[in-house]
Amino acid sequence: MTRDAIVVGGGIGGLAAALALHRIGWRATVLERAPEAGEIGAGMSQSPNALRALAELGVEERARSVGVPTHASGNLRLPDGRYLQRAWPNDTTALVAYHRADLHRTLLDALPAGWVRTGSEVTAIRQDGDSVTVACGETELSAELVVAADGIRSTVRGLLWPDAPPPRFLGRTAWLGIAEIADLPGSMTLGPEGYFLIHPISRGRAYWAHVATADEPGVRYAGEKAEVVRRVATWHEPIPQLIAATPDERIIHIDIHDLDPLPTYVRGRVALLGDAAHAMSPDRGQGAGQSIEDAVVLAAALADEPTIAAALARYDTERRPRTQATARGARADGRRTTSRAAHRVLVTMIRLMPAALWRKGIAPEGNPTWRWQPPHLRAPDRPH
Prior knowledge:
- With 384 residues, the chain is α/β, with parallel strands linked by helices.
- It has twelve helices and 19 strands.
- The longest helix has 31 residues.
- The model has no long low-confidence stretch (mean pLDDT 94).
């Protein structure tokens, strides 16, 4: 008998969860509140841990084909253009960069037709011993399991974790854009109160992000492009070129938040996944990647354990320590890269580090986060 789940949220984490469930023989209904399936935002990179998880979902080859290798972690610069560390053309790079929509489409295309229901906003949820019922307006759906992948401002978390603190502003804001400029190698420029990140992405484009300190959230400008130009006008090329090549209306301005750690990601037959469980700052490039990991670990537990309760307990035990440690590390990295007080120390440390040691640290197996190995997703007709 096919087992069934409801996935709340049709972003990268939600689609990864549905695809992981599909791989173990479950059926999933994905409830997405937006009127159309798609991904907002601009670019991102995925590291080896996420790419291994995508392999377990059966989409690594396709995902690599729509991404572009990026040397952003190897090319560290100062605003005047000087290199602190530099990648060479034959260096192996651990990162693959994407437009978010391209990776989202890869996951969406791998799902069975009809699994995603758009225009479905969850308004209530209730549980009994054997099932979970989700209300979307006047419609109700029931399943054995609900996976809440509905983002940092998760409706499901608010309903079932009412005492959990709201997202926390981290004192930083970011402008994001996509420019029609090809063949950039990727880089990160460290300024005294922020940084500028560049990734090449598919179809001859480049993704850029400027992250800077901010006293409070919600501050917006009549001309967002003019504001980011003002902040980095004297920085090295191609930074001014990238901003100039980005249409004004396509520049995205966001404030950066994360979540305080939750004591559990599970309530009954409901599991939080991705940003709904452990939203983190982007400074380690792990937000989407950790949600893909979550999906694979959850599905593996469901395939291996005798009951849903046991599977969810295993998922919680395995994922909370890793994701919360990653979030703490990302928060600390963000403070170091946007603090004027820390800037001089950080720059000196990077400059003095031998190039060989730096390359070792950013190699595909260079850090514990990247070395993570996913569990194998066992199809139901295969032996353990």
